[in-house]
Glutamine--tRNA ligase
Amino acid sequence: MLNKEQFADNHFIRTIIEEDLKSGKHSAVQTRFPPEPNGYLHIGHAKSICLNFGLAYIYDGLCNLRFDDTNPEKESDEYVNSIKEDVRWLGFEWAGEPRFASNYFDQLFDYAVGLIKEGKAYVDDLTPEEMREYRGTLTQAGKDSPYRSRSVEENLDLFMRMKNGEFADGSKTLRLKIDMAAGNINMRDPVIYRIRRAHHHNTGDKWCIYPMYDYTHAISDAIEGITHSLCTLEFEAHRPLYDWVLDNIPAPHATRPRQYEFSRLELLYSITSKRKLNQLVADGHVCGWDDPRMPTVSGMRRRGYTPEGLRLFAKRVGISKSENIVDMSVLEGAVREELENSSPRLMAVLNPLKVTLTNFSDGLTQSRSAAFHPNHEEMGSREVPVSKTIYIEADDFAEVPPKGFKRLTLGGEVRLRHGYVIKCDEAVKDAAGKVVELKCSIDHDTLGKNPEGRKVKGVIHWVSAEHAAEITVRLYDRLFSVERPDAVRGEDGEYLPFTDFLNPDSVQEITAYAEPAAADLPPESRWQFERLGYFVTDRKDHSTEKPVFNRTVTLKDSWSPKA
């Protein structure tokens, strides 16, 4: 359930909104989340979703979901559907039906015609290379296109013929007539329409000219009555163009939008470029956009992250204009904290070592009931069965124990979690000298109570071999082995391919054993395996016939980069 305390507070955008509401500039808050449907959403989008939908929720306003679909060659309904699913999974609902910028193409075209009639836009024949040459540099003014002085009548005629498909792709553009000497390069007669014969996922083949993002975005905000248009900082230099467009078209809505920028999230040991994420998928480095190693919302969901954990992360990283570089441990910590309270417990053994309980007796040795969560009685309990053969973690036994070792040793005792105290009497080895079995004896007087006359400090987890569910476990780690995989330069000063820094140990699949309940769980069932970490049954591959668990996060942050 959402509550208003779940969202970041005391940031500058909330201050602006509160001042706008107090002054009467706006009577209500209307925001929007405007992804381009050219890929799956990632952790940076999750932060933006929490900001835009969260502000609408806090101030009892509305938030639109709008697809800025002006680039038909890279967009698809697959991405549209995945975005809608992700937003809902994160706990939010948009106002009315989803919007599409492409639904406004007729209005955008009419506004462009109006700009031409007012002498504020012209059709240009410069090639992209020539346009770059004419644009100038940060220190040198641009120069006017030789086509800038075309008459209104000629521009109208050419623009209509562009729309009607009379010219080749890329042969002409429509540009705003602003100022080729402007200090802000974005204001040097920006292109607002280009010719591109491409099938559009929403409008089909109706158009062969498509509007540019900056032009479309500003007008879409105005059409929808957006009050606060929130963008990441790379759009700060585009704000003068956003304002110019809105100042030079007839107002389609009484509410005049304003753009505000906040810092983009940079997550260490990860990447948040959709182009590079797409490359990982296309080149087979990961198993799709929802691979649990991916920083996509669908990938994090499949890994076992919760909406509550991601909302907590978004609150903790906050909203500001300062650099927002966040270590992966902050994300994992937020997820871990939420799972600690919400996940029931089971025992599982990932690296099994056989233990034979030599004095096991059907009539004497008993099982014990254990709660699924120590702090939530409402989660219920289960019987923890025991048999003559059990499995423990191989790491919980040492022939030559290191200093401070509190687990099982030859001649030593340990308590089985939710069970008896046992003593190791013998270690059986194979021909290579590897320990393959322990023979231990049970102190039958220790079920649910301490042994008399001695202290047993160690407690280990275990499962009954007779009753255990055989499960497949995928142990996921960070996808990259360096903090900024796309920002490493070689000796020549050039950036090295980010794929050079993929972590070869980012996933390991093993067969493990768990308590019987693990064999009867639905997909996306989150559990803590005691002493091991948090795990989730896989959304796609898990079934009661073949249980598959993904490790979401370890019990504590113990990650360190490989040397």
About this structure: The first helix runs from residue 12 to 23. The two ends are 43 Å apart (CA to CA).
